[in-house]
Design goal:
Organism (chains A, B): Salix suchowensis
Strand content of chain A: 15-25%
Number of domains of chain A: 3
Shape of chain A: elongated
Keywords (chains A, B): Methyltransferase, S-adenosyl-L-methionine, Transferase
CATH topology of the largest domain in chain A: TIM Barrel
Mean pLDDT of chain A: 89
Oligomer: homodimer
Pfam families (chains A, B): PRMT5, PRMT5_C, PRMT5_TIM
Strand order of the largest sheet of chain A: 1-2-3-4-5-6-7-10
CATH architecture of the largest domain in chain A: Alpha-Beta Barrel
InterPro entries (chains A, B): Arg_MeTrfase, Arg_MeTrfase_PRMT5, PRMT5, PRMT5_C, PRMT5_TIM, SAM-dependent_MTases_sf
CATH class of the largest domain in chain A: Alpha Beta
Protein name (chains A, B): Protein arginine N-methyltransferase
Largest interface: A-B, 36 and 36 residues
CATH superfamily of the largest domain in chain A: Divalent-metal-dependent TIM barrel enzymes
C-alpha cells in the first residue's frame, strides 16, 4: 500500500516502498509474502540464480538460470517486481574470465528482464574506482531499443578530505563514480540511481548534490536504523532529513509505480516485542496457521510514519506540481500580446499588488507632505494591462489620503478593451485616462510625478523593462519616481540532470542556448546566488547603455566534493520604492508570490567542478537594433563555448 | 618574392615573408617601400589611425580614422596587405569606457578591413589572463557571414613551473590563453594564430604543442636575432629549429598568399656594413636618388637562407603532399572489392614486399633444413590480390633454394582474372594454383606449411585480418607458420586542431565516431605511443575471441604544460616472422614504405590535460555477427562519452 494512501494523501502525492529479497525460484510465494503479508508495494528480486556462470556451462546447454516467465502474469512482473542483476557481476575486473562472464550475464539478465516486461532493473554497484568497461556495456544496452529503466546502485559514501588528505588514494566519493558512469553513458535518460543509504552519512553539502540527480530509489539498509526507547527502528535526524528530502525532491506529479521509490533492504536488525493488540487482532483467524508478521514491517511502518509526518503541500504548491522541472519559453510581452488567461493568472497574485500598493503609498507620502495633501499627483501606469496596478494605485491614494490623476498606458488593444470596461464599472472615469499606445512612442500631454510598471521577467530585465522604461522616462519629471526604482538579476550554479536531459532531448544547438522559465525542483543549488545586472530608473546619464557585462566567480563549499554544473538558475530582486522589495531570489524571496518561476540558462556541456577550483562565469546582455539577448560562458576551470552568439538561438524582440 | 622561388623550389613549396609596419596614411608609398625596395611579399599594417577613440569623437561626425579605400586596388589590398587591428584595444579591461571603446573600434576596424577585401587581420594579443569578453566579441564577428581570416596574436611565452611553483599567479603559458580563446570561439575555422617569436623560447616539449595548432603566421621580432661574426643577423639553434619546424608544418599543398607566413617585425637591431657590391650594382641607376636598401632586408635574407638550406622533400613525400591532413574513410577490403588502381598503388610499395620476402625466406629455411631442400613446402597466399605476395614467395624460394607449391586464394573475382594472366605470363602454372574463393569458406584439398597474408590496415586488425586468418587457420598444419605471425596496434594522443575542425565541419555525431586514414601533418604528438591490441596467428586456444579491451594511461611530459587532445593517432607494427617486422609506429616504422597512413580516432569533445594529471583512455574491439567495430572513451581527467556505441557510426563489415 503506497505510503501516502495510508495518511489519506492524494494519490499523486503518495510514495511507494519496496523490499529487497534474496533469489527465490518461487516468485509467487515471494510476492505473496512481501506484498500481502508485508504490505510492501513491490519486491527488488534477482531474476536469475546467482550461482550461474556462463563459463561453467557446457556449450549449447539449456540455461537453467531462472524460473519460467509463466509463474507471474506480465502485469505482475511489470508492477510488482524490480529486477536485481547478479551482484557478482564485475565488468572492470583485472580477471578477464570474470569480465567476460560478467558481460555475458549482464546482457542475458537484461534480455530476460525485458522478456518479462519488468519496468526497471537495479545494476550492482561498480566494484572499484574504474567503471569504463561496465559503462560501455550498459551504454550498449541503453543505446539499444528497449524501454527498461536501469538504476545503477551506488552506495552513498564520501570520505572527508580532512580524514584522508586530498591526494590519498583511499579517498572515496561515490558521486564521482556515478558522474563518471553517466558521462560515459552520455547522460542517458533511462539511466538513473538506486542510492544505498548506509548507517553513516557524509556532510549535508555533499548530500545536497544528489537532489540534482536522477535518483530513482533510495535503498535503506536495516543496519542504518537506530533503535528507539521502545525497541523499534528509527532513523537519525540526519537520515530523516535525507529521506524527507527525497520524498520532497521526487517529482510527485510524475509518480508512477516504478519511479521514486524507497526500498528496505537487509535482515531484521531489531528484536521487536510482539504487540498484544496485534495478537488480539489476529486471533479471529483461527483456521490458518498463526499468520506471520513480516519481519521488516516495522521498518516500513517507520518510513510510512516519516512520510505521514510531513506537512501536506500548500495549495499553491499543489497547483504548481505540474510545472515542476517543466521547461517553458519565457514570455515576450513586448513583441507578443498577452492572452486573457495570462493576465488572469498574474492578477491573482495578490502578494505582488500588496507590495506595489505599499511602495506607491510610501512614494505618495514622500512626494506630497501632509500639509499639501490636496495637491494632485500625476501617476502613470505604463503597461497597465487589465488594470491591477491602476487599482493598487487608487488604493494607495485612498490609504494615504492623496489625490491622483492616473494615465493608464497599454499597448495591447485587447487589454485596453477590458481596461475601459473596468474604469466604467468602477466609476474611475474622472481620475483615470486610458492611453492605447506603446509607452516608448507615446507623446504625453504632461509629465508624471510617478511612473509605475510591472515589466519584470524572471531574470529582471529579460522582458525588456529597461528599454520600455527608457521610453517612459521621457515623460517623467526630472525629480519623478519610477516604481520599481531598480532591479537586479542573480544567477546560481545548479546540478540539474533532469533539466539538462530535457534540453538535450531536442538534439539541437538552439535549445542549449535558450533560457527557460521553470519551476525548479529536482535540482541542487551548489552555491548562494550572485548579482548579475542592475538597472536603475530613472537614469538621465548621457552615456547610458542597456548593454551589460558581468564576470562572476563561484566557490563551491569544500565539503561538497566535486559537483556537476548543468546550468544556472536565474532570479531577480526589485526595489519597488525604498525598502519595499519584490523578488524571487531564494534568500530574500517575497513570500507567497507565484507570478515568477526561476529562469534556467543551460550549458551545452556540463562542467565538472573539483573542490578548491572556482567556477568563473561570464554573462552579457547585448542589444541590437531589433532585439536584446544574453550570451554566457564558463571561463574556468575550463572554457566553454560562448553560448548564444549574436542571439542566434534565443532573443527578446524589441 | 616568395622564399622558395629564390631557390628554385616548386611554387607549391614556397613560403611568403611579410613585414610589420607602422600606421601610414600613404599606403601606396608603404607598399612600394616594403615590397619593391624591400622584396617583402606583403605588409602587416594598421588600417586605422591608432590615435582614434570612438568616445572622443563628437556624435555623428565623419570618422577620420583611415585613408580612403581608393588608394589601392581591391586586389592590392587583398594580396599585399594584412590588416593589423589597433593594439590599444583591450576588451577585458576593468575600465568600462576603454572596454566599450575597444568593442566599437574592433567592430569598426573589422568592418573596414572587410570593405577593403583584406584577406586577414591580426588581432592584438589579449592584455591579461582573462579574455572572455574579447573572445565573445570576436566570436560574434566570426559567427557573422564574412570570410576574413582572423589571426589572434599570441606571444610565445611559457614560464617554467620550476621557476615559479605551479600555483604562482605569475605563471604564464600563452598557449593556455590561446586555448581558452579558441574554446570560447568553438574552434572556429577562421580563427588562427599569429605567433610572436621572442628572444627566449620555452622548452621543446612545450613548443611542440603549437605544431598541432592552426598557426597562420610566425612573427619574428628583430630583437630575437643574434649577431653573427660578420655583424649580420642570425637566429639561435633553437629558433632555427622552430622556424624550420613551421616551414615544415605549414600545409604546403594549401599555401595561399595569405596563409602560413613569416613576418619580420620591429626596428633594425643590427648595424650592417654596406656591402660594396651592393653599391656597385646600384651605380648604373644614376638618374634617381641613391636607392635605399630596406633596413630589414638582412632579416628577410636570413629567413630566406634558412628556408633554402632545408632539404627538398623526397619524391614520395611530394607525392603525398595532397594527402596531408586529409581525412579518408578506411578501406573495407573484405566487404568491398578493391579497384585496380588501389592494387596498383599498393603493389608499388617495394619495401613492403622486400620485408615479406625476407620473412618467407627465413620461414622456409627454418621449415626445411638444407639436407631436405628438395622437399616441397605448401604455401598459401590468402588474399593474393593481383599476385605480389606470390611473386615474393617465389623469389624467397629461389633465394633459399627451396621448393614451393603455392595456392593463391583470392575472393575478388576481378583480381583473379589478373592473377591468372600473371601466372600464365610468368610461366608459374606448375607451381601456383589459383583459388577463387573467400578464405573463410574455402575447403582446402590439403593443409599448408605456411600461410602468407597482407590483410593489415593502418590500425593492424581494422581490416579484419583476425577474422580472415581464423578462417585460414583451418587449413594450416598444426605446426604451420602464419606470416605475419602477430601484429599490434598502437595509439598516441594528438593535438590536431585542423583534423578536429574538419571532422566538426560535418556537423553530425557519426563523423566524430569514425576513424579516418590520414597522412598526419599539422599535428602535435603529445606522448610516445602505447600498444593497444595484439593478435597472434595461428591461435588454437579453445576460448579464443577477437574481442579486445585495453585501458591505457598516458603521461604528458611535465614541461609541455597543458595540452589539448583532439583525438588519437593509430598505428600498427607486425611481426612477419621472427625479427622481420613491418609497421608504421613512428619510433620503429619500416622506412620508405607508403602503403599505410596512420589512422585517426577523433574525440567528440577535445580534452584538456593539465600537467601531472594523466590521460586515461579505453579502447574496445567489439565483434557482432555481421560487423566488427571499435568503441573508445577518455576516463580521466574527466570522463567523455563512449564513442561509437554498438558501432552505430563506424564499423567494418564481415
Amino acid at each position: 500500500m503506497p505510503l501516502g494512501e495510508k495518511a489519506g494523501f492524494e494519490k499523486s502525492q503518495s510514495r511507494y516502498c519496496g523490499v529487497e529479497a534474496e533469489f527465490n525460484d518461487d516468485m509467487p510465494q515471494l510476492l505473496n509474502f512481501n506484498l500481502s503479508t508485508g504490505s510492501f508495494d513491490f519486491v527488488v528480486a534477482p531474476l536469475m540464480n546467482p550461482s550461474y556462470r556462463p563459463s561453467l556451462l557446457e556449450k549449447d546447454g539449456v540455461l537453467p538460470f531462472a524460473a519460467s516467465d509463466l509463474v507471474l502474469s506480465p502485469s505482475q512482473w511489470s508492477s510488482h517486481v524490480v529486477g536485481k542483476l547478479s551482484s557478482w557481476i564485475d565488468l572492470d575486473s583485472e580477471d578477464e574470465a570474470l569480465r567476460m562472464d560478467s558481460e555475458t550475464t549482464l546482457k542475458q539478465e537484461i534480455a530476460w528482464a525485458n522478456h518479462l516486461s519488468v519496468q526497471a532493473c537495479i545494476l550492482p554497484p561498480p566494484k572499484g574506482a574504474s567503471c569504463a568497461n561496465y559503462a560501455r556495456c550498459v551504454n550498449q544496452i541503453l543505446q539499444g531499443s528497449n524501454n527498461m529503466q536501469l538504476w545503477l546502485r551506488i552506495p552513498l559514501v564520501k570520505t572527508d578530505d580532512d580524514d584522508m588528505g586530498a591526494n590519498s588514494t583511499s579517498f572515496i566519493d561515490s558521486w564521482e563514480l556515478w558522474n563518471s558512469f553517466r558521462l560515459l553513458c552520455e547522460h542517458h535518460s533511462q539511466l538513473s540511481i538506486a542510492l544505498d543509504i548506509l548507517s553513516s552519512l557524509p556532510s549535508l553539502n555533499s548530500l545536497g548534490r544528489w537532489f540534482g540527480e536522477t535518483v530513482a530509489a533510495a535503498i535503506i539498509n536495516t543496519d542504518s536504523f537506530l533503535t528507539n526507547g521502545r525497541g523499534y527502528p528509527c532513523l537519525s535526524k540526519r537520515h530523516q532529513k535525507l529521506i524527507t528530502g527525497f520524498f520532497k525532491s521526487f517529482n510527485t506529479d510524475m509518480v508512477k509505480l516504478m519511479d521514486d521509490l524507497i526500498v528496505i533492504s537487509g535482515k531484521p536488525a531489531h528484536s521487536i516485542p510482539r504487540p498484544s493488540s496485534d495478537l488480539a487482532a489476529n486471533n479471529f483467524d483461527n483456521n490458518s496457521e498463526s499468520p506471520q508478521r513480516h519481519p521488516l514491517r516495522p521498518y516500513l511502518d517507520y518510513v510510512g510514519f516519516l512520510f505521514q509526518r510531513m506537512d501536506p503541500l500548500p495549495e499553491q504548491e499543489r497547483f504548481e506540481l505540474g510545472y515542476r522541472d517543466f521547461l517553458q519559453s519565457p514570455l515576450q510581452p513586448l513583441m507578443d500580446n498577452l492572452e486573457a488567461q495570462t493576465y488572469e493568472t498574474f492578477e491573482r497574485d495578490s502578494m505582488k499588488y500588496i507590495q506595489y500598493q505599499r511602495a506607491i503609498s510610501k512614494a505618495l507620502l514622500d512626494r506630497v507632505p501632509d500639509d499639501k495633501a490636496s495637491a494632485t499627483t500625476v501617476l502613470m501606469v505604463v503597461g497597465a494591462g487589465r488594470g491591477p496596478l491602476v487599482r493598487a494605485s487608487l488604493q494607495a491614494a485612498e490609504e494615504t489620503g492623496r489625490k491622483l490623476k492616473i494615465y493608464a498606458v497599454e499597448k495591447n488593444p485587447n487589454a485596453v478593451v477590458t481596461l475601459h470596461s473596468l474604469v466604467k464599472l468602477e466609476g474611475w472615469e474622472d481620475i483615470v485616462t486610458i492611453i492605447s499606445c506603446d509607452m516608448r512612442f507615446w507623446d504625453a500631454p504632461e509629465k508624471a510625478d510617478i511612473v509605475v510598471s510591472e515589466l519584470l521577467g524572471s531574470f529582471g530585465d529579460n522582458e525588456l523593462s529597461p528599454e520600455c522604461l527608457d521610453g517612459a522616462q521621457r515623460f517623467l519629471k526630472q525629480d519623478g519616481i519610477s516604481i520599481p526604482s531598480s532591479y537586479t538579476s542573480f544567477i546560481q550554479p545548479l546540478t540539474a540532470a533532469k533539466l539538462y536531459n530535457d534540453v538535450k532531448s531536442h538534439k539541437d544547438l538552439a535549445h542549449f542556448e535558450t533560457a527557460y522559465v521553470v519551476k525548479l525542483h529536482n535540482i541542487a543549488r551548489l552555491t548562494p546566488s550572485q548579482p548579475v545586472f542592475t538597472f536603475t530608473h530613472p537614469d538621465y546619464s548621457t552615456k547610458k547603455s542597456n548593454q551589460r557585462y558581468k564576470k562572476l566567480q563561484f566557490e563551491i563549499p569544500s565539503d561538497t566534493g566535486s559537483a556537476m554544473v548543468h546550468g544556472f538558475a536565474g532570479y531577480f530582486d526589485a526595489e519597488l520604492y525604498k525598502d519595499v522589495h519584490l523578488g524571487i531570489e531564494p534568500s530574500m524571496a517575497t513570500p507567497n508570490m507565484f507570478s515568477w518561476f526561476a529562469i534556467f540558462f543551460p550549458l551545452r556541456t556540463p562542467v565538472c567542478i573539483k573542490p578548491g577550483s572556482p567556477l568563473e562565469v561570464h554573462f552579457w546582455r547585448c542589444c541590437g537594433s531589433s532585439k536584446v539577448w544574453y550570451e554566457w560562458c564558463v571561463a574556468s576551470p575550463n572554457s566553454s563555448a560562448i553560448h548564444n552568439s549574436n542571439g542566434r538561438s534565443y532573443w527578446v524582440g524589441l
